[in-house]
Amino acid sequence: MKTVLSSSHRRLITVIDILLAAVILFSALTLGSCNVSMSTEATQPSADAATPDVAVTEPPTEEETAADELLSIDTYIPADPEDAGGEGVYEDEYYIWNGQAFSLFYGGEANAKRWASFTDTAAEKMGENVTTYAMIVPLHAEFGLPSRLLTGDNAVGTDSQADFMRTAYTSIESAAVPVNPYNLLSTHCNEYLYFASDHHWTGLGAYYAYSAFAETAGLPILSLDDCTEQTVDGFTGSITRVVTAELNTDSVTYWQFPYAVTDDITTEDGEVFHYDTCYYEGIPSGSDVYCLFLMGDYPMEVIRSKSDSVCGKKIAVVHESYGNAFIPFLTYNYNEIYSIDFRYWNGDLSEFCEENEIDEVLIMTNIMFCANQSILDSIENIL
Amino acid sequence: MKRQISLFLLLFLLPVLLFGCSRKDTDLKAVLSDINTAYPENTGDFRELTDASELEVYYSISPDDVRQFAAQIKKNSTNAPAEIVLVEAVDAAAAERIKTELDHRYHSIVSMYASYSPEELEMAKQCGVTSSGNFVTMIVSENYDGMMNIVNTAIG
Asked: How do residues A240-293 score in pLDDT, each as one tens digit?
């Protein structure tokens, strides 16, 4: 968790440190120097006075406190991105500001509760032998736009993603496990988390979401320091084609792992292709560089890992294209990852998990999809 | 005598003409059927919404606001949604609320096209939400103009 703590949380930890030190100092004075503390009372302490009447609870460690707050489904830490000034413009359902295009989000409380209901149904369909994780992937706006553009009379017309996620996660009534990546993204908002010219997140944004998942699932987190960073420049994403405003050109960073990874892709036609990597490493610059992750969108991919940190673990991930940048990191924790793009896969997930002895499922979609009942229907059709 | 009969007929028929035409009895399910007949190639893979409570699920439209409706949603169209929603509201205020919700949905659909099917974005932008009296429609289809002609002819 250490690798993903921001400066604001380090400050929080420092405050906690000071409080803890004060408590320890006070205890030491009370226990070890009773004469000093009791001198004003004019009575001698009994032998038992050194032992508190109430049970002492171990205070949470620094890491536990920080992790609890970052993964909380109730607490949403507002992002504080650097403000380059100026106003943006609307174009084709995007808000363009500072060379970046931001997708707008439309979703209210009713939509959020329906997502929770959908998640409950999914967990029930998967059964008690399968742990079902559910992650909402937030969009760029709340992490990239300064607060003056998100609130007030001249606010950009986009619904609060934090409110949606809070309602959605806290409305889950089943055994489904909510995974909240919001705060980790928020506390790293000045890093390169989302593309300027494309609606997707970057590999780094996906990494923080992976960190949230691993922490929630009680798994060790892959350190990017142990990987080899690679970058493809000249990414002009999908939004470049639909707006006239000039957008920043992006670069796509990915990480090669210190262990072997293979990827078997099944196409919509049923053909299977085998690769000794889960990245399309030779992809040229241009508009399709996001296809570098998992080679693009396919109904089914089986990614196998020789990571030493696990033995025989399997997981199925139901997702759309946001999952493509996320799934490679799971190779650190799982030997077999079944990547299922619900837009193109027509199977029965319950049967599939039983046949392949998969006991963990992660359903992750971007928040725009989560607020869309037709899309939830599409996912439910394969469960 | 003839003048008296004419006057009587005029007095009798005038209210019928005035009030009878103020609310045209249009069967929206029949209108949707006409659309499907006219454009079978673009309406074959749709799921029809049959209960008003589904309007609340898909569009946050209160069933209490709805006098009648007809709607269908294209199946498995995650990246490029196609939807036809025809609603007659119970009154003008309800029509306004319904229009607000359908406007929301339409913006969301256009946003989906912009992100996932930019090659079809222009088509989506040509579509939209309309209202006429208590009738409110949202159509997103490559046959938008033709479908709207059918709707406009029906609701007058």
From this structure: 988 999 999 999 999 999 999 999 999 989 999 999 999 999 999 999 999 999
Name the closest residue on chain A to residue B121, using Cα atoms: A242
Residue A115's CB is within 10 A of a number of other CB atoms, namely 27
CA distances to B28, B33, B83, B149, B151 from B48, in Å:
13, 11, 10, 21, 17
B100 touches chain A (CB under 8 A): no
Mutation site for B-interface testing, chosen from A105, A106, A121 by largest number of B Cβ within 10 Å: A106
Q: Is the pLDDT of residue A140 over 70?
A: yes
**Average confidence (pLDDT) over B88-117:** 92
At residue A230, what are phi and psi to the nearest 5 degrees? -130, 150
Using DSSP's 3-state secondary structure scheme, residue A192 falls into coil
Whether B78 and A369 lie within 8 Å, measured CB to CB: yes
Strands (E), B39-108: 46-49, 66-74, 83-89
User: Measured between CB atoms, does A287 come within 8 Å of chain B?
Assistant: no
Q: What is the ipTM of this complex?
A: 0.76
Looking at every residue in chain A, the average pLDDT score rounds to: 86
Distance CA A113, CA B60 (A): 12
Chain A residue closest in CA terms to B55: A373
Question: What integer pLDDT is reported at residue B108 of this predicted model?
Answer: 87
- pLDDT for position B11: 53
Distant-in-sequence contacts of B102-106, Cβ < 8 A, 24+ apart: B102/B59, B102/B61, B102/B129, B102/B136, B102/B137, B102/B138, B103/B129, B104/A106, B104/B60, B105/A106, B105/B58, B105/B59, B105/B138, B106/B138, B106/B140
Asked whether the beta carbons of residue A242 and residue B79 sit closer than 8 angstroms, the reply is: no
Question: Cβ-count burial of B48 within 10 angstroms (0-12 exposed, 13-18 middle, 19+ buried)?
Answer: middle
Q: In chain B, which residues have their Cβ closer than 8 Å to the Cβ of A239?
A: 114-115, 118
Is A103 an 8 Å CB contact of chain B?
A: yes
List Cα–Cα distances, B53 to B61, B69, B72, B104, in angstroms.
8, 11, 14, 18
